[in-house]
Amino acid sequence: FVPNGNYASVIEKFRPNSFNKGNIRDMEGKVIGVHDGIINYTIGQRKGIKISDKNPLYVIKIIAKKNEIIVGSKKHLIKTEMNLRNLNIITSDKNDFEKELFVKVRSTGRLIKANIEIKDDSANVNLLEEEQGIAPGQACVFYSKNKIGYKVLGGGWITK
Hints:
Layout: H1 7-14, E1 22-25, E2 31-35, E3 58-63, E4 68-72, E5 78-89, E6 101-104, E7 112-119, E8 122-132, E9 139-145, E10 150-158
Parallel strand pairs: 1-4
Antiparallel strand pairs: 1-2, 3-4, 5-8, 5-10, 6-7, 6-9, 7-8, 9-10
C-alpha cells in the first residue's frame, strides 16, 4: 500500500526523527555504539547492528522517545507475557475463552498455547510456551481448537 514500495519515504514524512542518529545501549544501560536512525531496526534483528561483541547481539528494545536501541543476547528476546489493546473479539460465545487457547503473533508463526485474561478493550496474555521477537505494534490473534480445527476468536495489538 506504500507508493513504489518505498516505506522509508512515508516514515520520513510522518516521523522524520526516525532517521536521527542515537545511542545503542546494552542491557545494563551502557552506551556501546551509535545507530543511524531507529527506522533501520526491528526487534530481534541481529545483522546490521554494527557492534562487535564476544556473543551475538540482537535488538531487544527500541525506545523511540529517547531515540535509543537496546541490544542484548538472544535470551533477552524470550517472552512469556504480553499486554494488548484495541481488542476485536469476533466470537459471541464467552465459553470459547474457557477452552484451551492459542495465539499467533506472526501470520506465518506457530500457534502458541496461552491463557488470556480479557478486561474491556485490553487483555493480558500469558504464554505457556516461550516465544522470541515479540514487539509492541504487532497483532496478536486468539484461537480455540475443536474437533473440526482452529477457530479465530479475535485479537488485539501488542503494547508490551
